[in-house]
Amino acid sequence: MKRLNKIREIMKENFLDAFLINSPYNKFYLANLYSNSGYLLITRNNQYALVDSRYYVQVKENAKEFNVIEISKERTIFDFLNEVIKKESIKKIGIEGDNLTYDNYMKLAENVKVVFLSISLDSLRAIKTSEEIEKIRTAAQIADKAYKHILSFVKEGMTEKQVERELVRYIKECNGDKESFDIIVASGERGALPHGKASEKIIKRGEFVTIDFGVNYNNYCSDMTRTFLLGEAYNKEMIKIYEIVKKAQWEAVKSVKEGITASYLDSIARNIIEKEGYGKNFGHNLGHGVGILVHEYPIIGKGNDIFLEAGMIITIEPGIYIEGLGGVRIEDDVLVTEEGFEVLTNSDRELISVKG
């Protein structure tokens, strides 16, 4: 019921009589319905799950707080919405405008005679419950195991794709459901690509290899990045870059606490990198929230003056990327606690040289 109360607080703040939810992630969060199909309708005094026959029994079993309504060609979602609007004197309904297609919105507007107002629910899932934290902690622990395994697996002459496939296989062996996003494996000069998804490039001795991956466990995600070296480094600048990123990352991690702003946390890492002359080579935000989605509210970056709160889980992931040379990124999942912080991903942050 606490989660439904969050929605009703948002309704109250925005003078809404109801909220219509279609995001699969928010439907899962509120009613354990993980599907692109169906809607949730939250009114001042009631809550409805509007689904077709495929999901009716499942939702009745899993969402006891909801009145489950079966939608069909004979009784469409528009029919039901108009019934409830009349019954509960609803005049204004909030919608997830950033998640509702133009076509679906137009159909709603044509068939349902009420005022619709687009309201962001980005912050709805920001504070994690103890149950959610445990799922993400488990996902992070599996990621740590997978990274340790891949260090013993990778060999000179392998392709980045081979490393990716082994990570996916091992994640499932360790009871992870799947990877939480397309895995990044970027070696050598490709390390300069912050989102360099695994390719058929052959990994060579002397190259730095950046691996950015996560684990999906019970519909919750982890997200971590490590950069390691295959053999010995031939380029001293890359070693220097690694140490700068490591310092910037850990100084930011140590600064995580309730009450600090996301923009100030970003500046801690960014200032260190800028003072070393690599500011233009760190072009992305310091981090982001993580949860049901691998990228969630809040953004940890410039200009975002939101205050961190206990229960948030965020990533800290500074990087330096130089075209034609390579790149380094180190990323951890960090829980904001009342006492300060807890790092959930704990793979070694020192530069590891793999014999391969």
TrEMBL record:
Residues 3-127 form the Creatinase N-terminal domain. Pfam families: Creatinase_N (PF01321), Peptidase_M24 (PF00557). Residues 134-338 form the Peptidase M24 domain. GO terms for molecular function: aminopeptidase activity. InterPro entries: Creatin/AminoP/Spt16_N, Creatinase/aminopeptidase-like, Creatinase_N, Pept_M24, Peptidase_M24B. The keyword ATP-binding does not apply. This is Xaa-Pro aminopeptidase/Xaa-Pro dipeptidase. The lineage of its organism: Bacteria, Bacillati, Bacillota, Clostridia, Eubacteriales.
